Each structure stands twice: as C-alpha cells, then as structure tokens.
Amino acid sequence: QAQLVQSGAEVRKPGASVRISCTESGDTFTSDSFHWVRQAPGQGLEWMGVISPSGGSTTFAQKMQGRLTMTSDMSTRTVYMELSSLRFEDTAVYFCARNVRSMAWNWLDPWGQGTLVTVSS
Amino acid sequence: DIQVTQSPSSLSASVGERVTITCRASENINNFLNWYQQKPGKGPEVLIYAVLNRQDGVPSRFSGSGSGTEFTLTIISLQPEDLGTYYCQQSYSTPPTFGQGTKVEVK
Known about the structure:
Chain A contains no helices and eleven strands. Chain A is an all-beta fold.
C-alpha cells in the first residue's frame, strides 16, 4: 500500500521561501498526480495545487499564483512544493496527497503526515 | 469556484447514537463528493468516495448518500474511535474544494 512521507518542520522569516518534499513508496508514481493542501492552525483544509509528475503539468489555486512552485523527481519518487514570499498567514501544516482515479471518480488517498511551516520574525 | 457548505460545525453525541453530517454544494457536482476523517494531529483519511463508496477497511457504520447538491454522511452507531473532524470535498471541478469541517466529540 502506498505511503507518502513528507520532510520535517520548518521555520522561516517573512519574505523567505520554503520547500517541502513528499516521497511516495509504491509503484504507481509515474501515473499518479499529487495535490498539496494546507491547514492553518485550528482551521479547515485549503487546496493549493496539483502536479502530474509524468508530464510535469501543474495547476495552482488562484490565490497562490506567482508564489507557488511544484516540481517532481521521478528517480526518487518525490514531489516538491515551494512557497515563496512567505507571510505570517502562511503558517500552517502542509499535506501532500495522491490523487486516486477510478472510472470517472477521483479522491485523495493516501495523505502525507503533514509538515508544519511556521513563519515568524 | 464551487462552494461547499458543511453542517453542523461541531456535534457531541453518545456512544451508539446515530450521527448525520450534511454537505451542500453551490451547484450540481454530479456525485463527485468525497468524505474524509481527520484525527487530531494526523492527516485526513478518505472514508467515502463518489457519494456512497466506502474505502477499503472503513467500518460499515459509515455510510454516504445524496445527489446533485446535497449529501450526507451518516455514522449509524457512533464509537469512541470516531472522534475527529470530518470534511466533505467536491472533486467535480478545479479547484477541488472542502467543506469547513464538522468536529465530532464522543460523550
């Protein structure tokens, strides 16, 4: 069963960038797409974007445009999310999640364990 | 973007009680509706996909129903391990959007 393992917690100053990794242990990496979702303290889930490693295509939430980059390394089965120009309100737990597709339907499974990013001066 | 409104925002119920959570979409999402459970300090896990399909390993006390714009997650007999926050998510269009979450407390 596939698992997603994320990199560890990060602390950054406002204006800095952060890059988080998400490594899949499984055998479907090349055919999967991976979403990034974040959760501010005590808040709900906010979709950030999605990457398809096989073609490198990405789609981002409009509010993230210009600050968000997603890349992948197929040799290590890893996807990366980089957020730049960090603001205090970017403090959140960031999750990666694999997109599962069956017939017409799709859902997110599994999810990574989450990476806490703290933006603090 | 499709808005997804979930209710209630929290509930408290006793072991064995029936619990119902509702999710309403701002437009027809053609049954592209998933439910997730998030336990404290963990990432979400899918419970139900495409309205009514239980993920492998999910207990049969969880069921989903609905169509069009209105959907329901029911826990037939609440158990202590069901505490957590439940989210619905529409996967009909990009961006995928989540409900605000329902925090479930077990008395």
